[in-house]
Amino acid sequence: MLDHAAKQVSSSRLSWQKADAQALPFPDGTFDAVICQFGVMFFPDKQKAYREARRVLKPGGRFIFNVWDRIEHNEFADLVTTAVAEMFTGDSPRFLARTPHGYHDKQAVIAEVKSAGFGHVAVETLTRRSVAPSYRDPAIGYCQGTPLRNEIEARDANRLVEATEAAASKISARFGNGPVDGMIQAHVITASD
Question: What are phi and psi of 45, to 5 degrees?
């Protein structure tokens, strides 16, 4: 991912490096802004990561991040989750609902960010459209390209293709067999002193 990012944005004023958000390798008060795109949902200790972001910010700096809204407001992810749940009744893979779409409560997020030392926290909810050239693309992406795959294979490794096809079928039933266009919704959080 870093190699791809470096190819997209090249500047002598910018460097790319791996870092643990819960233990940032930078001195206090280094940055004007800390930005995290759809990552905080995966932090094991969000409070620790928020305190680290606060620590490395200069006075007046801003911490900006985004999180997905609840899964029901993200059509492709919701359809994939429903399709896979129908295959594994009683023990359905819930990765998408639990993790990427599981940290959506705006008031809880605000409270956690404030408890990490930020005085001002604003949230903006954005609704957009996600497009794909085919109804199969989101099904393949979610079932085979995310940790949902691990949950499917843990239940029955031989059913990954079947799960992908079930998800594709749900998506095509809603959006048709050509290019697809589904709603996505996320919260953008801006925190400062």
Answer: -125, 90
